[in-house]
Amino acid sequence: MSGQRRSEGPSRGDDAPGAPAADGANTAAVPPPRPGGRAEARRAAQGRAGGTQGPPPPAAPVGRAAARAAARKPKWGAKKIVAWSAAGVLVLLAGTGGLIYYKLNGNIKSFDPDAIATDRPPEAQADADGNKPVNVLLIGSDSRGKNNSDLGGGEDGGARSDTTILLHVYADHKHAVGISIPRNAKVAIPPCKLPSGKWTKGEASQLFNAAFSTGGSDDGNPACTQNTVEKLTGIRVDHTIVIDFQGFAAMTKAVDGVDICLPEDIHEKDLNDKLPAKGAVVLKKGPQKVQGQQALDYVRLRHGIGDGSDIGRMKRQQAFISSLASKIKKQGLSPTNLLPLADAATKSLTVDPGLDSADKLMSFGLSLRNIDLHDLKFITLPWRFRTQDKDLDIVQADAQKLFDTLKADRTIDGQNATGEQPPETAAPTGPAAPATTAATTPASPFATDTANKSIRVSVYTGTTAVGMAGKAAEQLKAAKFTATAVGRADNTKYTTTMVQYGSGQKANAEKVAAVFPGAIVEPGTSPGVTVIVGKDFAAANGAAGAAGSASAAPSTPATPAPLPTTVTADARSADDNICDNTTYGSGG
């Protein structure tokens, strides 16, 4: 392929990844296999290795005794094999003096913890079983530093966030959803720390990917992007992972290629519109396997397919990550498969301080191994085209519903992550007599009811007082209920504590209400039982400023409203057909 590749500024522009390389020049090195192995050992034992004669191998046992011995051998199931493999990886990594551990550890870079904003959203609270959701910010950097300019095209310095996905891993660690954030969406960028140590003043409206390029460093500014995402979503980011062109290309080779699918042939000019002619086909129509430069071309491709916007490109990125996850899962979590992948990835990885070692990174990765491909979803942050330019605006109302859904640890179809709901009881028994005060554990007839444990209660704070959901959850647990402090309600102006119930849950709600004297029991729109603690509960528990007048307690349910179809209609599961939903609009 001929022609100079075109670079791209922080705002937007045509991507020009350039021609696909033949395989390889930039593949991250993988440790060569150690000499020897079973075959060589057998040859040596048989006197055929290096001309050295050795004793003949012992004869294999034959006959009925051998057959019985073979029949007695334990049969390993798939789960045991996976468990053994995972344990093997950790042993290899954490073993004293392990060369592999130190090799991977030396690959990993972390960014300055002091660059993370101090004014952050609260941490997610654990559920009744002590499990917490985890939010991971995944950034694909188009840094032209090091050898990345050979892969990505252009000579400009600095770095931009070519791909950004906020991955929400639910508390059960069996479900996850990734939200693609358009790089040319207009957002507020908070103050960010520069390489010089100074802080910017922040900007009220700027392109999202400008956050990563703040400071002009070849390494980018992942802390600034993390701060921006937290400001945009109100969700605390637990971990941030950045991988550049070189690491991405090496990872695809480490797994021996990734399956993709295209609705049209892609030509050289589609990758570099400065070329005078259409040029040769560089990515063919239909299913195929790509790695290295070709894989990078696929995930960065905009032109020659759909309307040429970033929306279609984000769809292909989601399809690619799904296919990569599928490939890794099918290959299995054995050291043989994981170590080359880990070596390839970590050479071009920048992470937050919480993932700054090989054992931390591997431990976190293995914590996600129980997510089924069908339960790994991808969606795009609600957006609309701007009329004044070619950039995007976030549809705030729909985006807020999405953020609220994640904060409540609800799946995008409005269910809790486990799918478990409290059991229904036959008939209501009526509210119990109230206890003297909500400040102490209530002496209700239900306080020692062991059946209460089967009733799961979500607790929200409907007041500005701090820690009230946690206190309410503790009181419910003391009364033998299974309670989870979820977070803030839809607003903080609830005067009276509310106990809301879903279909068939009225009796359970009335049992729960016995813990909160004076609470209002009413139907809600979410399944199970929900408690929204109000100012009455806060005042009874000594919260400063909790008392006082306020508007009447609204009956709006604390659980998020259902997401609009504009958000969920194009959701991709990681096990979807690779040829589906990979473009947007028409033309080319």
Characterize the structure shown.
It is built from 17 helices and 21 strands. The protein has 588 residues and is of the alpha/beta class. The strands form 5 sheets. An 8-stranded mixed beta sheet has the order 1-12-7-2-3-4-13-21, with helices on both faces. The chain has a 5-stranded mixed beta sheet with strand order 17-16-20-18-19. The chain has a 4-stranded mixed beta sheet with strand order 6-5-15-14. Helix 3 (78-94) runs antiparallel to helix 12 (358-366), helix 4 runs parallel beside helix 11 and helix 7 runs antiparallel to helix 11 (335-346). The model is unreliable at 1-62, 64-97, 148-155, 419-448 and 545-557 (pLDDT under 50).
State the shape: globular
Put simply, the count of helices is 17
Helical content (DSSP H or I, runs of 4+): 25-40%
Task: Describe the sheet with the most strands.
Answer: 8 strands, mixed
The chain-level structural class is: alpha/beta
- Rg over CA atoms, rounded to whole Å, is 28 Å
| Unreliable residue stretches | 1-62, 64-97, 148-155, 419-448, 545-557
Strand portion, in percent?
15-25%
Question: What is the number of beta strands?
Answer: 21
Biggest sheet, strands in spatial order? 1-12-7-2-3-4-13-21
Please, what is the average pLDDT? 75
End-to-end gap: 20 Å
